[in-house]
């Protein structure tokens, strides 16, 4: 992680674990038009009904979360991390059974990598992982994230999985804390 910071950060908490569960990217929310009501009655404007929209998760997305959250909860900290966070994840995807042998071999050797057209956008995998971790109480809010460290998406001939690392780094809250920290470095 030293390549990210000119001064090595003080790590105050680190979690590192593997979830043996097939990674999937987070699906987009589905939108539905809902009649707008006021005092229990449909609202009309210029004689036409007024609608609002509501975004909800698909059943497939909700089922995936329901399955992975208990696995993530096994590794969660006793209390949510409250400081600045750095996240790292390696996403190991299964090699498609339908592929020819040369393609399977190339994927197993990481010569052929999972592009978005084959597996989904990498940022949607991050969203899936971080949103589920938030639901479990790993951290207070995703605004705490200050960086990602060496994320990858690769194929594996072995168990599909998520390899996750989360670092909470100390940050000075006062000028005195900053001076003391810098004094220790010299």
Structure description:
- It is a single chain.
- The chain has one domain (11-29, 58-185): 60s Ribosomal Protein L30, Chain: A, CATH 3.30.1330.70.
- It is built from five helices and eleven strands, in the order E-E-E-E-E-E-E-H-E-H-H-H-E-E-E-H.
- The protein has helices at 59-73, 101-108, 116-119, 122-136, 175-185, and strands spanning 11-19, 30-35, 37-38, 41-42, 44-45, 48-49, 51-56, 84-94, 145-148, 152-156, 161-169.
- The longest helix is centred in the middle third of the chain and has 15 residues, at 59-73.
- The two termini are 20 Å apart.
- The model has no long low-confidence stretch (mean pLDDT 88).
Question: What structural class results from the helix and strand content?
Answer: alpha+beta
| Average pLDDT level | 88
In the CATH hierarchy, what is the architecture at level 2?
A: 2-Layer Sandwich
CATH superfamily: Holliday junction resolvase RusA
The largest pleated sheet is described as:
5 strands, mixed
Question: Over the alpha carbons, how many angstroms does the gyration radius reach?
Answer: 22 Å
Helix content: 25-40%
Distance between the termini: 20 Å
CATH class annotation: Alpha Beta
Query: Approximately how much beta-strand content do the residues carry?
Result: 25-35%
Low-confidence stretches: none
Number of strands: 11
Oligomerization state of this entry?
single chain
Shape: flat
What do we call the CATH topology? Answer: 60s Ribosomal Protein L30, Chain: A
Provide the number of structural domains: 1
Q: Could you name the key traits of this structure?
A:
186 residues; alpha+beta; 60s Ribosomal Protein L30, Chain: A; 5-stranded mixed sheet; 5 helices
């Amino acid at each position: 992680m030293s390549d990210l910071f000119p001064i090595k950060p003080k790590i105050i908490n680190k979690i590192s674990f593997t979830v043996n569960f097939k990674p999937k990217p987070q699906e987009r929310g589905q939108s539905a038009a809902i009649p707008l009501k006021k005092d229990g009655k449909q609202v009309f404007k210029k004689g036409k009904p007024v609608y609002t929209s509501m975004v909800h998760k698909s059943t497939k997305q909700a089922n995936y979360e329901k399955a992975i959250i208990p696995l993530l909860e096994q590794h969660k900290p006793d209390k949510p991390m409250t400081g600045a966070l750095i996240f790292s994840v390696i996403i190991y995807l299964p090699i498609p059974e339908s592929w020819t042998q040369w393609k399977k071999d190339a994927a197993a050797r990481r010569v052929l990598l999972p592009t978005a057209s084959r597996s989904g956008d990498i940022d949607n995998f991050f969203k899936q992982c971080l949103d589920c971790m938030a639901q479990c109480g790993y951290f207070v809010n995703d605004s705490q994230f200050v960086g990602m460290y060496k994320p990858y998406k690769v194929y594996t001939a072995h168990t599909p999985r998520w390899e996750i690392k989360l670092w909470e780094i100390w940050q000075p809250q006062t000028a005195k804390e900053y001076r003391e920290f810098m004094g220790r470095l010299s």
